[in-house]
Structure formats: C-alpha cells, structure tokens
# Entry
Amino acid sequence: MKNVTNSNVLNLAGVVLAAGLGKRMGSSLPKVLHKIHGTPMLQYILNTLYGLKPQKIVVVAGKHFKEIRESIKDDSSISFAQQKEAKGTGDALLKAWPALKGFKGTVIVINGDIPLITRETLKKFLTLHKKKGNVISILSFMAKEPGSYGRIIRGEAGNITSIVEDRDATDLQKNIKEVNSGIYAIESEAFPILKEIKLNESKGEYYLTDMISIARNKGIKVNAYCTGSEDELMGVNTQEELERARQLMKDRIIKRWMDRGVSFVDTVSVSISSDVEIGKDTLIYPNVHLEGNTRVGRGCTIYPNVRIHNSIIGDGVVIKDLTLIEGSVVKNRASVGPFTHIRPGSEIGKGAKIGNFVEVKKSVVGSGTKAGHLTYIGDSKIGNNVNIGAGTITCNYDGYKKHITVIEDNVFVGSDSQLVAPVKIGEGAYIGAGSTITKNVPSMALALSRVQQRHIEDWALKRKLKVRSQKSRAKNRDKRKKVVSSK
Ligand code: UD1
Ligand code: CA
# Structure
C-alpha cells in the first residue's frame, strides 16, 4: 500500500454519506431531507458538489433509500448506493465503492449533514490535497465547543495521527478544539483500506475516521487542513442545530442579495430559498417568504406577510400585505394585494391591479385590468383594461367539470355579478351590477339580468301608520285590564 500516490491531474468524484438514521433529530423524516428555506440539506451539498464538476457523484442512502432518491433533483451524474443497515460511516463509504468502479482519481467524501459547506472552501481544500501530494486529507476546523465532533489527534511533528470520536476520547483529548468536519479527500487507490476498519465496540459501528490511523500505520501520506469556519462546517444532528443552520443560511442568502442592491426592512422574519433571484432596488418588508424557484424583478416592493412560491414577478411590481402567490407570473408594474391569493397557473398582466380579498386561479388577466375588491376569478381569460366590479364571481364549476370564462378587452363588469361558465363577454360590453350572466354577451352590448325595479307608492307611509295604530290599540287594551284588576 506504500506505493499509493496522488497523481497531479484532478480527476474528481464525490460521495455523500446519507444513510444514517438521524436518531438525534427525533423525526421520522430522514435527516438529510430536512429542509432549510425550502431545500433539503442533501440538495445543498449536491449543488455545491456540482460546482466542482466531478465526473461522478454517489449518494449513499439507507433505510429511506426511495424517499431520498425521489427527493433529489434529477442529474445524470448522480448514482445511488444502498447501505441497508446503518453500520457506520466507514461501512457507508465502502458501499459507495462499487458505484465508483473504474474511477481513478480523488474522491471527495462529504457527510450528508453539512449543508453550509461552500464551493470555495472545498476548492481550497482540494488544492491543498493535490499540492501536498496526500493520499488522504481531512478538512478540519476549530470548534468553540467541540461537543460530539471527532477530535484531530496530531503527533509531535504536528501531523495527524488519528481521529478520536468524542465518545471514545479521554478527558485530555476532549479538550482538543480541532475537530473533524466529516469532509475527506481520498485517492481512489486507498479505498481497499476501508475493508480493514474494525468494528468499534462502543457504538457497534465501523468508523470512517479509523481509516486515518490505519493509513498512517501503513506509511501513507495523510494530512488535515483547517480551511473553513465553524459556521460553514457545522454538522446538523439535532433540531436545534437545524434551526441554527437555517439562521446561518438565511444570513448568507440575505447578505448576498443586499450586496446586489436589494433592501430589507428588518430581516429577522424573512426567509429566502437558495434558488430565489431578486433584482436590485427591490424593497422587502418583514415576514416575507420567497420560496422555490421564485424570481423577483427590479424595483419591486413586497409589503409584510407575503409568501411567494415558484413564481415570476416582473419589475416595479407592488405586492401588498397578506398575499400568497403560487406558481404564477405577475408582470411589470402590476399591483397585487392586500389579502390576495394568486393560485397556480395564473398570469397577471402589466400594470394590472388585483386587490383586496381577491382570488385568482388558473387565469390570465390582461394588462391594465382591475379587480379591486372581493372577487373570484377562476379558469378565466380576461383581456386588457377590463374593470371587474366588487364581488364579481366567475362560476367555473358545475359540480362535475370546470368551465372557462372569457372576458374580452375593455369590458365593464358591474359589482356583484356572477358569470356562469362557459360564457364569453364580447369586447367593450357592459354587465349591469347584480347580474347573473348565463349566455354569451355580444361585443358593445349592455347585459342585465336582474329583476326590474318597481315602486309601490306610499308603501312605507302606509306601513308606518298601520304600525302606529296597532301600538295605540294595544296600549288602550292594557289600560282597561289595569282598571278591571284594581276593582
Ligand atoms: C461524524 C464523524 C465525526 C465528525 C462529524 C462531523 C464518524 C465516525 N464520525 O460524526 O468525526 O466530527 O461527523 O460532523 O464518521 N451515515 C451513513 N451511514 C451510517 C452512519 C452515518 O451514511 O451508518 C451518514 C449520515 O447520514 C450522516 C453522516 O454519515 O450524513 C455522518 O453521520 P453522523 O451519525 O451524523 O456522524 P457524527 O456522529 O456527526
Ligand atoms: Ca453529524
């Protein structure tokens, strides 16, 4: 094994260990699938790995193999290996070996619970690994409280001799602040060493970290490098650590957007998923949540208590308080909210105003169109410069099927109208307030379907007189009763 060396060319493969049981999370969801701002921890690590352009990535999954495979965004460079029983990190890496068959070069191994790791740190680490000609390198960091991390044990010359897990460490070793991050660079030829790892009796697992002392005893070149910060290299084992990782990730994402000219009013309650993009001069108020593949344009204002999921928001858009937008497009200079729900498959046109207590579902709303108050627009195609009065409802469902409502350009829909689909309102037509429209309305017509108003002369006056005389008769009756009873 002594002749195992490090070649100069960086042929890179990645392995992510994700087969642990994650018992300390106290959750039935596999640990690596716990989300940070909408993205599973494992996905963050894979995204970082993609940036290094490895030839191959192997994810080792265990009991939750199917769930993990299905939750990961498809990428042809990923293959999956299964570790049926969680017998430790050493055994997990051994299970990845067959999937790396034929690969010759450096394998970067990452524990699946280090979501904050950055490409820059991995690059620095790999450069050192190559430059120093190591066969195995360990990425270490200085921990304020080393807690459950494995301690880096260095010999007199300062070289790493072994990693001792916290549970096996002596009191003296427990004081060591330099710890193992769970990220390793291993030359592929060194993989046979994994078979020599012995079962650790105290935990009943095969520790990957034991590979270090075995390699050292064989005279193989091993080194540890302290190249990243504690915040970036933290391992997530508990719910508390997951929440800390969320905070750190949030700070990192928000800082990135601030650096690009986005303003925030009090970031404490804001969350932004890592895939979101925001244009400069956009202003974001408290309790705003931007999720999934959302893109927000330039110069937008997003007022408090707004959630936007997988949506595209144009430039100069104003989104007012307490609004939810899902899977939709809002075009330039439109205004949405307050209290508005834009449901999937909708498109709000340029300069449109969709306002107070309005729900839009799977509908296209043209530019300059206004629906300002208490309206439901479902399965509709609405043209430009349409005015939808307060309380208008598109009745799109007959109990069995959904039907389409078409409203052409420049239509005026009076308040409290119901448009019973399928129905089409021709260009420039007017719908009188309070109408129930069941037939297509021709262009430029006025449609009215309410009962004609009629007046009954003096009805109110006669009623008033009648009530008054009833009251005085009742009074007289009471008086007579009193006189009789006093006799
Ligand atoms: C591990 C390291 C420790 C290091 C720490 C850094 C070992 C023995 N210890 O400890 O030195 O300081 O990470 O965060 O490696 N996994 C499997 N199969 C298994 C067990 C675990 O795939 O049988 C995966 C887990 O899903 C996880 C990763 O390996 O993503 C690390 O496992 P975990 O149990 O979190 O190890 P730590 O105790 O944190
Ligand atoms: Ca861990």
